[in-house]
Structure formats: C-alpha cells, structure tokens
Model the fold of this input.
Amino acid sequence: MLELRNLNLTKGNFSLKSINLDIAKGEHWVILGPTGSGKTLILESIIGINSLDSGEIYLKKNKITKKEINQRAISIVYQDLYLFPHLTVRENILYPLKVNKKLKDKKDEFEKIINLLQIEHLMERDISNLSGGEKQRVALARALMLDNDLLLLDEPFSALDSITKWNIIYKTVEIFNKLNKTIIHVTHDIEEALYMADKLAIISDGKIIQTGGVKEIFYNPKNEKVAKLIKKDNLFKMKWDSENNVFFKNGFEIFYEEDFNHDYGLVHISPSNIVLSNKKIKTSARNVYTGKIQKVIYKNFGAKIFVDIGVSLAVYITRDSLNDLNIKENKKINLFFKTTAVEIMG
Amino acid sequence: MKDKIFKIVLFSLFITILFLISAPIMKMLLSLSPELIKYITENKEILNSIFFTFKSSLFATLAGVIFGVPTAYILTRYNFPFKNIIESLIDIPVMFPHSAAGIALLSIYGSRFFLGKVFKTIGIEFVDSMYGVMLGMFFVSFTYLANSAKEGFKKVDEHYEYVSMNLGASKFYTFRKIVLPLAFSDIFTGIIMMWARGLSEFGAVVILAYHPMTAPVMIYEKFTSFGLKYSKPIAVVMIYFSLIIFAVLRYLQYRYKKKGN
Done:
C-alpha cells in the first residue's frame, strides 16, 4: 500500500535519517517513539507538507513524492484535530465533499459515517461546544469522508484525559475493524501502541531503529533504546559473572540459569512475576531479597510499588495482596522471583 | 499595605489618563447646539468636505485591503531574504513626520517626477486631486492594516491550511474559506484603524493635495484664517461622525467575534 524509500529530511536542527517502511493494505502500524523523535515529521512528509531532501514515497505503487498535498489521497487526523472553528460540525464533516467535485455524490457516505461514529446529534453544534471525545469523532468523520484507503493518525488520543482516552481507543478500534483501512498511527504511549498496532516501528532521534510485529518487538527488543521504550520498569544494564551465573550491579545480584556470552547484559525482571511476602519464606526461587517500600502507586488492577533493594525494583500486585500484605511506604518487605522472570534484552 | 498603595497608584493613573483623553472629546461633544447645526447645514462646503474626507479614507482603506492583506499573508507565511528589512519598510511611514511623508510623496508622485508621469499616462494625477488625498492617507495609514492583518494571520495555525488542503481544497480556496475568516477579526481591526488614521491625516495630505479640501485641512484653514469660532463646528461634526461610525464598526466586530466563539 505505502512504501517509504530512504527518506531523508532536515528541518531546523532536526533530521530524519534513511526512513524505510513497507506498509501492506489493511495493516495498522504504530510509529512509537519519545517526543521529538521525528514521528510527526514522517507523517507530514507522507502527506506532502515537508519536501524531502531525498527519498521516494510510493502509494499503491505510484510515486507520490512530488505530488501536492491535495493530490495525495491520504487522510490525516492530527492530535490538535484542527476542526475549523468557524464552521459547524456538519460543515466540517462535509468540507471534503464541498471541495472535491468527484465526491459530490457521496452524501450517503456521510450518513453512514456519522451513524458509525454515533455523532448524528452533534451536526448543528459549533465546534467550541463539543467535548474532547466528540471533537475526536468529528475529526475522524471528516477524515473518513474522503474515503482514502490510507489514514494517518498523529498522536490522536494525547490531548484526552486517561478515562476518555481509553473509551475512545476501544471505540476507535471497533470502528477501524469495520472500515478495513490501512493506518499509520504515531504515539509515544506504549500501552496505546501495544493495544492498537498490528506492526510497530520504533523511532529514536529521527531514525527507525526496529520494525516488526508487536509480540516480536515486545519480547525481542533489538537494543537498549528499544527495550527502554517498551519496558519502562526493571530494566538494568548489569555485569555478568560467568563463574557464579549472576548478573550484578551496585551490590544487587540476579541469578540467571542460562548461558550468557557477554560482559554486560540488559536485564529485565517482569514486575508481575515478583512475589512479595511479609515473612521470610522457604522457596525454590534463587533470587530472594529484603527491601524497603519506597512508593505505592495505586492502579486499577491494584498497585505498582517500588522496593529499594540496592536498586529500585517495580512490583505489580493485586488489590487483594495490597490489603493482605498491609502495603505501605517505608515498610520492610521480602521479595523473590524465579529465574524465569528474568529476560535478557537485546 | 504595599499592595493597597500599588492599587491606589494604579487606579489613579488609570483615572487620570481617562480624564485627559475624554475631557477634550466631551467638551467638543457638548458643544453641539442648534446654532452649530444650523451653521453646518448652511455651509455646504463643510458638509462636502466631511463627506469627501470619509469617502477618500474609505477608498484608501479599500486599496489598503487589496494590497495589505496579501502583503501581510506573505510576510507571515513565507521566508525570503531581507524579510526583516521589508517588514521595517512597512513600519517606516508611521515613524517620520507626516509632512515629511507628504514631501516624499510629492517628490515621486508629483506631475514632474517619475511615478507622477507614469500615472499621468493613465489619467491619474495626484497633486491637488482626490487621488493625491487618497495617496497621502494610504501612505501614512497602510502600516496599521498590514500589521493588524499580520497579527491575524499569525494567530491562524498553519495546520488549518494543511488540513484543508489535505481534505482536497486548493490553496486559494483554503485562503478564502479558512484563513481569511479566522483572521478576519484582526483584519477588520486593521481596517478600522487604517480608516480612522486616514480620516485624521493632515500633514501628508496638505502638502500633496491641499484641494479638494479634506475636513482636517479645512479645520486648519478656518482656524488660521478666522479663528477657533469658525473651525470648531467642523471639528465637532467630524468627531460626532467618527464616533458614530466607529461605534457601529466595533459593534459589528464584536458581533462577529461572538459568533466565532
């Protein structure tokens, strides 16, 4: 559907470097990267806002690199939506029909789209009278009116509060499943990326550093940068002691059963696989520690707590465990995990 | 205590300036009397001069819109060499004495000079003509419209244009239907400012086109020839007309803004 071939672009002090992507019809790609990594610049190059220094863009095998914005047949929804504030909701959504003569007979499409997005009741409203979620749906409806096969989403949920955001994400995924569009979606939110993507492209400093399926990248991040982006908690660069089969750092040691052939390893300990206990208990687990609870962050599933054991280790616990163990800050606690909870990244 | 003193100083300054500005205006407005109205209505040259002033300033402002809006848009959206110098150039006419502006205009648009000769070939002469009055008004007030329109365009995020074009609109359609309406309030402020500035212009106009006489020139002439008694009625009527028209324009702008919000 879309091929990006060796795109290079410098804008101010920032450069996109050799961007290559092959996006097949119907796939939902998420370009994931921190703020300022060049995600939006890629989208703006695809729709034709930025002229490339070099490289080619092909849409359905046709070269579109030099085409004007209004000739590219690619839709975009921005984070800030850019709904025209002086037009009503209806006028905003019908704008593409007004400016594209060939779409004039697509009035049926309008009804279909507003029904699908459940925004029939908003039609005569001013944009300023809409909630964040409503604006989101209106912007999506406007983009869908073009009936382009390729839809670009630039951090579309970033401006929403977390409850609205997830409601909209669930709804959007439902809608996308019905539409069979090819989607490129950029975000810095790992949860959103993992939930929505078929494929991921990880970007850092203007370079795509890894592409692949969600599972593949999640379990096999190519390097430290990708690992840090995907797994924010319990990722440590540690020295390997091959004689004792332990990784160590600042007095913190992790026993690891498998062979390892490097001096250093990027070690991840799954926060869900760490067990807490008030008493010292007998266990077959090789990694047993005592530490102090530094911080408790309450979550829907229970809590994420940080325990100081020489390093700060994140542990996810359920609501029941939170009560049973009487978890509170500054309390001493025992924790252990099996070697199977240890992953070596990159 | 310090905060209280600060507030007292703040409000004292505020009230003082309100008084200093409103006192002469109020004095003029309160001067309106049946005798003054009779005097004005009996002197057709005064009314003609006032209407001529409003008309000339309106045409100068229309020319300002035609040239100023595209200029402002270019200066906001495009980068090119010497852009800062060009921006300063547009500001210059309000910075030097307007009589000097009149001399400058006369030196190039006068019938013996280059542009004067060029325009003469198409039947336009500036010295002592309505075109001269308009040119004088245009030259000293264009800056207000251009700068206000620039502010308006700056407030319109460029992404609105990208989105409009992404939805299939041409650049021109986008400019007409998206950018102009969104920047309109500031452009309209510029229009009001330019028209108002044009109405009050004396220095440049008096040098380039003493005749046909605009109201400010007539006020000056009556004052120097016959004294305050004969110049004041023109000034009073001018102030009334100006206040009524600008109140209406500001109200329309307020309605437009309210609708936009």
